[in-house]
């Protein structure tokens, strides 16, 4: 395989992956912000939830059909391998460079995707017991919606904790291990000196990513538009 190389390094993170990463940050931030504002911003909260769910599903698919370093099989390692990496990470002077996600980062990716998926899906049927509800509220009973609302409120706290851990880890690598993980996720490239021979990808598979996005967007649009109408006013409080 011909690696895409330049004076700035080799291409590791494909463009679709970087776009999804950036849009996910925007979606999560917007969802958190609009949830803490007045009910007038609920439509934007709903839209940010759509964006998060769209990106999470797309990323899960991309983990199976995307370029080399986007695939789960490339960075999800077993307990023994992960433990060895974590142990070496705490040793003074140890500097292990992973081409893609390191084993700890790989498991964090799965955790974050799982939390975001649960958060977005429960939001589809959740309600605020006042006037707003998720787009699939009409499919479920009052009791089920209330249970999912509790899960939705609980998971957001776990998600915020996971995001905090993720940020601390990135800063740890930057300040302690002297490995910048931020710039490569923006440019897609890592310095050649940190990579083994043969590392890198030759293209971003943009056309394939667009196909995935179109399919996911159509499926979500069909799901939401076909949902039965329901109103909180129909409940007896």
- What percent of residues are in strands? under 5%
- Biggest β-sheet, characterized? 3 strands, antiparallel
Could you tell me the radius of gyration in angstroms? 20 Å
Number of strands: 3
Proportion of residues in helical segments: 55-70%
The termini sit apart by: 64 Å
Low-confidence runs: 233-237
Q: Can you give the mean pLDDT?
A: 89
Tally of DSSP helical segments: 8
Series of secondary-structure elements, N-terminal to C-terminal: EEHHHHHHHEH
Side-by-side strand order of the widest sheet: 1-2-3
Shape: globular
Give the class from helix and strand content and strand pairing.
mainly alpha
Explain the overall architecture.
The chain has helices at residues 15-35, 42-65, 72-75, 79-89, 103-125, 142-175, 182-187, 206-225; strands at residues 5-6, 9-11, 189-190. It has 237 residues and is mainly alpha-helical. It starts with a strand and ends in a 12-residue tail after the last helix. The longest helix is centred in the last third of the chain and has 34 residues, at 142-175.
What's this entry about, in short?
The chain has 237 residues and is mostly helical. It has helices spanning 15-35, 42-65, 72-75, 79-89, 103-125, 142-175, 182-187, 206-225, and strands spanning 5-6, 9-11, 189-190. The model is unreliable at 233-237 (pLDDT under 50).
List keywords for this structure.
single chain, 237 residues, mainly alpha, three-stranded antiparallel β-sheet, 8 helices, 3 strands, 60% helix, globular, disordered C terminus
What order do the helices and strands come in, and which of them pair?
Elements: E1 5-6, E2 9-11, H1 15-35, H2 42-65, H3 72-75, H4 79-89, H5 103-125, H6 142-175, H7 182-187, E3 189-190, H8 206-225
Antiparallel strand pairs: 1-2, 2-3
Helix pairs in contact: 1-2, 2-5, 2-8, 5-6
């Amino acid at each position: 395989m011909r690696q895409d190389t330049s004076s700035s390094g080799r291409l590791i993170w494909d463009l679709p992956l970087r776009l999804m990463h950036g849009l996910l940050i925007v979606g999560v931030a917007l969802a958190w912000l609009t949830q803490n504002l007045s009910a007038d911003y609920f439509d934007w909260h709903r839209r940010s939830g759509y964006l998060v769910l769209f990106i999470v599903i797309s990323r899960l698919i991309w983990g199976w059909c995307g370029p080399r370093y986007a695939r789960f099989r490339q960075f999800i390692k077993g307990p023994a391998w992960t433990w060895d990496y974590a142990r070496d990470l705490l040793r003074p002077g140890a500097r292990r460079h992973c081409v893609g996600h390191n084993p700890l980062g790989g498991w964090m990716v799965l955790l974050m995707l799982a939390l975001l998926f649960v958060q977005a899906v429960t939001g589809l049927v959740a309600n605020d017991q006042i006037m707003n509800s998720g787009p699939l509220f009409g499919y479920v009973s009052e009791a089920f919606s209330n249970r999912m609302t509790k899960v939705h409120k609980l998971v957001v706290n776990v998600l915020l904790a996971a995001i905090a851990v993720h940020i601390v880890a990135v800063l740890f690598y930057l300040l302690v291990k002297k490995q910048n993980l931020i710039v490569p996720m923006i440019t897609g490239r890592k310095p050649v000196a940190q990579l083994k021979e043969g590392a890198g990808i030759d293209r971003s598979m943009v056309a394939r990513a667009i196909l995935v996005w179109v399919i996911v967007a159509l499926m979500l649009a069909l799901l939401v538009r076909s949902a039965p109408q329901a109103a909180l006013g129909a409940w007896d409080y």
